[in-house]
Amino acid sequence: MDMKNEKLSPEEEKLNKMSLEEKLKIPVSDPACVPEKPVTVTFAEVTSAAFKIKENVVRTPCGVSHMSESEGMEIFLKQDFLQRSGSFKERGACYALMMLPEAQKKKGVIAASAGNHAQALCYHGKKLGIPVTVVMPVFAPIMKIQACYRFGGKVIVEGSNMQEARHVALVRASKLGLTYINGYDHPHIIAGQGTIGLEIIEQVQDVDAVVIPIGGGGLIAGAALAIKSLRPNCKIIGVESDRCPGFATSMSCGKPTIVSVMPSLADGLAVPLVGVNAFQTARPYIDKVVVVKEEWIAIAILRMVEMEKCVVEGAGAIGLAAILAGHLSEFKGKRVVLTVSGGNIDTTVLGRCLDRGLTADGRLLKFSVVVSDRAGSIAELCTLLADVGVTVKDILQERAWLKNDVFSVKVKIVCEARNIGHCKELMKALTDKYDSVSFAGFMQTLDSNIRTMSTPDLTSSPFYKKLHMSESGSEYLM
């Protein structure tokens, strides 16, 4: 519940005493997002938003990526993670707050969000003197909850998922006279997000394609509208995770369609039902929607850190993931803008993402080998690893669960390699010397070149092939 000690109105006290189950039984609706009457945002509204928010929102850079040459296309990165609260959400939040009637500005607004929208509303609400309440589900990262407090918002942590948090927020909006602002489907939010499209067209001349992450659809709706209005021949590519392909499913069904949501590195895109207004506005302008696997998102986060020195969340890196996975090969030799939408990644999640990226990239591997339990056997194994040139990160000996003879020991090792070519060299050295060797995860399929649905074919990308050439030539080129 509310984590601040402050004087509450009788109605608020009554709401706070109600259980979640009681609140979920109260019928609610969002007057700005009516499925039967979707609103189509216009280009004039986007330009109006751009004029109104220009003094409050950062005009973020859109420079050439270091990965352009390796990928065979001129890649530009629209770095909206450099906004004060860490994401593009500030554009829509600022405009929606500024468009409130004066009486409503005094009463305040409320929203349901697990992170970026909540932070953006709290930040601009404080700047504009508008009270902001955000309802965050219990799984919301502590870091983002604290950020909302830091930006001056009132935080309520309630609901096991976003649907419940949204319902709680709508109940409070109805009972307390607050304006509910949907983070991706309110018309003013969509218009505000569209200002990023205006900036892209100004910053990159003759752009051929713009790649935009899709969650609820607000960003791609506004941006696509702005870009196509100014440059009709520019292709609009939407990208989402295979853990929540809401927009792709809705496009195939012809209407917003609910999908199941699984945990994803791109948690900011995990919206089970795209917005009705966003879908209505975006649909005519989108040329292609691609769905990427989690492994490529992890690799993209890794590439952004290593190559661009940018720390971004999964949603922000997903456009690059689409390129690395080979989904946008038709744009070779073209000018492509990637919308790097957010950088609010939890520190612990970042570490996991980097490890998964290194694993999928063939630079962090885990294997087990059965060796003799006599003196010196493990020393021989370590000597072999040193000769191959891998770095041991962790080592574990296992005897009790071994099915071989009692004079053997299974050694489990996690080590670092230069690339997948280097991994294959290690595999050959181990299998030549030992009878029982097994590699975990991706490496299990490497030798037979079998790629499963959960394992990316890393060799399909030109970037991969160039990156993994050894210093002496093409020794490790796949």
**Main sheet: strand order:** 1-2-10-7-8-9
Estimated radius of gyration:
25 Å
Count of alpha and pi helical runs? 21
Helix content: 40-55%
Distance linking N and C termini: 54 Å
Write down how many β-strands occur, each being a DSSP E stretch of 2 or more residues: 14
Largest sheet, if any? 6 strands, mixed
Shape from CA axes? Answer: globular
The whole-number mean of residue pLDDT values reads: 88
Poorly predicted runs: 444-478
Structural class: alpha/beta
- The amount of beta strand, in percent, is 15-25%
Write up this protein.
The protein has 478 residues and is an alpha/beta fold. The chain is built from 21 helices and 14 strands. The C terminus is likely disordered. The protein is globular and about 80 Å long. A 6-stranded mixed sheet has the order 1-2-10-7-8-9, sandwiched between helices. A 4-stranded parallel sheet has the order 5-4-3-6, sandwiched between helices. Strands 12-13-11-14 form a 4-stranded antiparallel sheet. Helix content is 42%, strand content 16%. Strand 7, helix 12 and strand 8 form a beta-alpha-beta unit.
